[in-house]
Amino acid sequence: MAFHFIAIVSHYAEGERIGWHYASETKLDKEVIHEFLAKVKKKCGDVQLGIHKLSTDSVSWESVVQRDAFFKDVIITSDMETFIELVSQDQELTAYDVAKFILSVIPSSHLKLQKLLYFAYAEFLLRTGEKLFKEPILAFKYGPVVESVFHKYKVHGSSIIDYKEDETICIYAEDLAVTPSFMKIASSEHGLTALDCLLDVFEKYGRLSARELVDKTHQPGGPWDRVYKPGKNAVITDDLIIQYHQVIQ
Question: What is the reported pTM?
């Protein structure tokens, strides 16, 4: 007989479930499991792991899948460090993750989306001193822009972006339905703070038009105004954002 310990987490970047598999032909070593849980917590914080223990006639993963089809589509690894690294990478937000959440709440044109994305970045930076996402914010003609999001949505021009979430995740215990983009942000390293910042930005700026938002990002002496040079797409640094926005808060 073989004994199995399986830890599973949803991998939002790939839309899959990933898991760590530890198996032994004798009793499972509690020290190995404690080491795994401690490393996950240290690297990734309070991750919601689905923990499963079962026995089969073999230490192979195939025997687990044969025992219970629930595990069929799990991307599995027996390497502790590989699993932890995948979870850690999935916790890192991209500008596209944030943009999808914004669009799921506030239908926006490409121009308005970029401005809301900028204000969300600035709000998070002021509260935490950390980047909401790693992509740089550039000074384009019509204000701060994240280039990857620009290329993703530029085809929409000035029209409202037609965006719908692919699916809705239902949390039945709480009688609550949430979108994948909400879950991706909530499961990130500073998830609750990021969500709170976004909700504040929606409250402050969500009802404004794209033109009104452009006027706000183009204020004399503001971060965009201080670095913009036609055709250069210069980076708006975090220092400039902090210096300006901590004064106008």
Answer: 0.72
Last residue of a domain, one of 64, 91, 118: 91
Instruction: Please write the tens of the pLDDT for every residue from 200-219.
Output: 999 999 999 999 999 999 99
Question: Do both 79 and 112 map to the same domain?
Answer: no
Phi, psi of 78, rounded to the nearest 5 degrees: -100, 0
Residue 72 phi, psi (nearest 5): -60, -45
Domain boundary among 91, 108, 141: 91
Same domain, 53 and 128: no
Which domain does 34 fall in, by range? 2-91
The 3-class SS string of 8-76 reads EEEECCCCEEEEEEEEECCCCCHHHHHHHHHHHHHHHCCCCCEEEEEEECCCCHHHHHHHCHHHCCCEE
pLDDT tens per residue across span 9-40: 987 666 789 999 999 999 999 999 999 999 99
